Amino acid sequence: MPGTEVQSNPSPPPTARERRKVLGASFIGTAIEWYDFFIYGAAASMIFGPQFFPSEDPMTGTLAAFATFAVGFIARPIGGIVMGHFGDRVGRKKMLLISMLLMGGATVAIGLLPNYAAIGVFAPILLVTLRFMQGLGVGGEWGGAVLMAVEYAPAHRRTLYGAFPQMGLPAGVITSNIVFIIVTSIFAPEVFSDWGWRVPFLLSGALILVALYLRVQVEETPSFRNARAHGDVESSPLKKVLREHGGTVALAGAISIACPAFGYIYSVYLLSYGTKELGIAQSTLLELIVAGAVVQLISIYIAAILADRYGQRPIFLAGAAVVAVWAFPFFMLVNTASPLLIFVAFVVMLLGTSLMAGPQAAMIAALFPANIRYSGTSIAYQIGSILGGGFAPLIATGLYARFGSTTPTSIYLMILGLISLIAIATLRVPSAQPIESTTAGDRQADPVT
Known about the structure:
Layout: H1 16-46, H2 48-52, H3 58-89, H4 92-112, H5 116-119, H6 122-150, H7 158-186, H8 189-194, H9 199-216, H10 222-229, H11 237-255, H12 258-276, H13 282-310, H14 312-334, H15 339-365, H16 373-390, H17 392-403, H18 407-426, H19 441-445
Helix pairs in contact: 1-3, 1-4, 1-6, 1-7, 1-9, 1-12, 3-4, 3-6, 3-16, 3-17, 4-6, 4-9, 6-7, 6-16, 7-13, 7-15, 11-16, 11-18, 12-13, 12-14, 12-15, 12-16, 12-17, 12-18, 13-14, 13-15, 14-15, 14-18
């Protein structure tokens, strides 16, 4: 079975204080990384078209802006491969610090970037380059943050610990959109278009310093320390992953497709579609997205608790079924342009994605042995993200431009939901997570028991 490993534990289990530090660093660090990633999505919906891709046709500018959004997802598998390789060779902690610096540096640079009117074609070129750097950073972030949490977890709480980095995503959505709500309410529209949009990007510099401080305080994971102590560090982790676990990577990537697709349709595409096609106030949509993210933050936590108690597969299956079925009702409610009905559409969709996101991290991590786990989890997750999430806003915009209807987008989302549903039904999920053994003392040392 994938991930089976026999290993002694030469060091005592982590203390409750150490685990609290890990959970805090995993959640806050990941939330800040996603803040950086999502402020780009919000800006692509609202401002990047006229700023960097001026065109007489607003739809063309929007498509170009969403194309640069997708560039980040092209970079994410590269970041996952590179940081996964070194994360399995030199440790999880170092790669998490590098990913934070990459993401934060690129985000601040975007906030300082001159627009098309100032430097012409170099503006979109530099924007694409910086977005690529963001993608590299977040590509290595997820696998490292998940392993930092899961490899510190006691056996009976691995899904819940793995959910803390997952909860960082809606936390990033909440933070990024609240910042945009504040900025758009403070500045007049012409001021926001001129320079006010840069404030959320520049704010990232301060947030990154906080996350770096928290991550520096955390020790390397017990799993990697044990692997290094036993001389079990793999020299070519990517080669071993693809040679011995290729089918597992493909299926784990497939189960990860639907969740990001629905997430980016809700958090990025609808900002553009709702304002331009439905005439909904931008501030209203931002508030609905924030409210939905609060629901998601809570429901991921609950889903992880349920998965620890009743099993990861049934919880994930339920979520995949919900999103596949909800693809058509989702847009039917959104197209009413009623804020209340749109919120209902968001809530049901986000409950479905939360049932998948809750068990996802620990489930994927358990599929790979410690010496290739960073590579295996990162590649699998980023495959799902690029195929499902990165191009979703661009595809939805193109489909609407071609057909003038959201029906093709609903079909597209339903297909992605079915792919994840079939993949989780096919994937051999270990009944007992084969992360490294823990001791009876773990339960007493668990701060979230």
